[in-house]
Each structure stands twice: as C-alpha cells, then as structure tokens.
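re: that chain from earlier
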Amino acid sequence: MTPLRQSMLDAMLQRGFAKRTQESYVEAIYRMAKYYRRDPSTYSAEEVQAYLLHMVKDDHLSYSTMNQAACAARFLFESVLGKGRSVFQIPMAKVPAKQPELLAREEIARLFASCESLLHRVLLQTVYATGLRVSEVCALRVKNIDSAPDRMCVRVECGKGGKTRYTLLSPTLLTQLRLYVCAYHPRDWLFCNRSRTQGVDINTAQRAYQGARSRAGITKIGGIHTLRHCFATHLLEGGVDLYTIQKLLGHGHISTTSRYLHLISPQFHPPKEIDPLDLLAGLPRV
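^ sequence. v structure.
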C-alpha cells in the first residue's frame, strides 16, 4: 500500500467515514491514477478536471459516477494534501433529480412470490417492511431484531455515515423472520453467506431482486433500492407523518424525505382494518 493511500484511509477513518464510502473513494482515486499512470499527488487541478470530463465524454459514465470521483478527488486534495478549494478547484455536475419508478402493491406481491429461495424472499420483504438500504439489510445481525412486545423494532447499526437508528418491526415481518430462522438457523448474521462467516454480499441481494423482478414480469427499471422508495411512499399514503418517515429512513434533512410527497397516489385509500405501519399485511394475495 502506498503512503498516499494509507494517508487517505487514515483521514477517512479519523472522520468516521463509512466503510463503503472509504472503498468507493479509494477506487475512484485508483482509477484516476491508472489513467495518468503516476502519483495522484502530482496532478494539477486542470488534469483532475480533464479526467472527470473524460469519464462522461469518452467512457460514457453517468454524471453521478463522475460526481463521486469528484468528491473523492476533493477529499484527497483538500483534506489529505491540504490544497485549498480556492486554488485547486474541482467542479461538480448538476445532476437532474429523477423520480424513481415505484412498484404497485400487486407488483411487490408478485416480486416476493417469484423469489427463488426463502432467504431471498425474506431479505426483500425486510427491505420493504423496514425501509433499510441494501448495505444495512446485508449487515443485519440476529441481535438487531428486538421482538419484545413493548419494543418491536429493528436496530440499524451500520447506517449511512455510521449512524445508528431504529426502524419498524411489523407483526407480519416478524412472522416471516421466524419462519426463516427456523429454516436457516442463523447464528450471528441474519442474512449470511454460504460459509456463514459474514453477511450476504450486496451484489447477491441486488441479483436476488433483479431475478425476482424478471421472473415476475415486472418491466420497471431500478434495483433493490426501489423497495425503500416504496416503503416511504406507501407509509405516506397510509397517513404516517413525514417527520416519522424521516427518522425511520435515517435522513439527515426532512427535505430529502419530502420528495416522496410527489410520488403518493391520491386515488389510494388504505384499508381501515390494516395497520398502516404493517406494509406486508396490506399487500394483495397472488
């Protein structure tokens, strides 16, 4: 490992960056170093800007990917190498906000019914019923499920930015989790890999969603994060207030959560006999 990489890792660790952020930043700088074939500490601002342009112009990568590389470069040159932004400018692209394609409740039911295994089905159900990010559901441990009647919650220890929070544990999800535990007997990680040495890989979770979506005949685009969008929107449609949803999702600013106000369907009326917080109970049978 080069001294520069070690310095960057130490600086991110000192600031409490999430492991996934550390990995993506190091990967972004590695790719830039591979492009120029020399020490990144020797780059000029113009060279960094030229590389970012190359990403979207020649490699046809998205502006979001370019912005991630720009953030990594900003951190390296400003926080690690001590070059001020006024003299070392790294631009960021303005990315137009795109509204996600939501799944209808009937499509979500078909998605779960099309899963190849009980593990995949319960994992996807957990994302929809709790609003977890894919990295968070893959990092869940058995001890994070608090099924005491006066608690009924899921503790999220590996949230974005290293933050800990609590989210919903509905009765229907608890029933599904108990069936899963009886079948798989997880000891530490709730959803573990085949060797049971760590949590299931994020790519595995994504493939489980994509495979179920394809088998269910759902043509809407998007990955497993779609279920998190559905969680927030369906809670809003059920009458749950925005502030509560913000805390359940782990958003730092309510403005981030408020975008779901544009996605709710005014035609939907939640069944009165079903708890609006128990999203799985509100799905139709397929």
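The mean pLDDT is 93.
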